[in-house]
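Quick start: load a record and inspect it. Here is Amidase:
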Amino acid sequence: MRITRERHVYSLGVSEPVATVTAPCSLTVETCDCFNGQVTEDGQPKARLNFSHVNPATGPIVVEGAEPGDVLRVHIRAIRPEKTGALMTAPGAGALPDRVKGDTRICPIADGHFTFMGVELPLNPMIGVIGVAPAGESVPCGTPGDHGGNMDTIGIREGAILRLPVFVKGAYLGLGDLHAAMGDGEVSVTGLEVFGEVDLDLSLEKGASLPCPLLHDGDEVSFLASAETVDGAIHASTGYMHDFLLAKTSLNADEALMLMSLCGHARISQIVDPLKTARFAMPVSVLAKFGVVVE
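Running the structure step on this input writes:
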């Protein structure tokens, strides 16, 4: 099934679905860029942007049979960005809000790379916004949380498996904000923002229950947490991994934290959204040595 980008939302929640599917299923989802096509040239003034129309997510997609307490397993089979991307800085935003005047750049994309300031650089396509309806009120697509949303995590890439906790009947999946390239932190306030399409396989894990999104990118398994501060997000994601190890292994609390300190990684995903996102990652190879397999 193909789901076109014309039907999109600016918040994740329960609303009129663009499609209803039965898992397991495969989808191709077209997405807008985070600007919804508003940035079209180098040096474009910020005043020309309507910030009430940013971070659109294609959806929502209702998954029949999904119930609160289930987990929606999303296998990202392919990400295909279009041929140009846009990025920007903005005064008062990003990691260095007092150092920039605000600017935009348009970068061509071809043959596995993009060109920035005349230099060819490699692509690393990923999904910035992906999530389900939260338990309460709808959440703007630009805000991350336990439901997913604008997590801007570079590991949400081609080949990865993202597990999302289901909070409402039908899940109500939405996604968008593709980046052709982005580094950890997203420090300028954007990555290389692109229109594109994503091939997904959806399945349900009944009663599996998760506290937050769980990412398996092939090399590592990570818990993704968002909070008002980076410290808060790191504390939460580290705690979720610690709970996971206590539940899945025979390690005690001290031993589990020792293992995490020896082999795990506390990483920053993004520091520019209304809530900050961090992840705690453990190598798949290390988990396997302790009898933990995440597929």
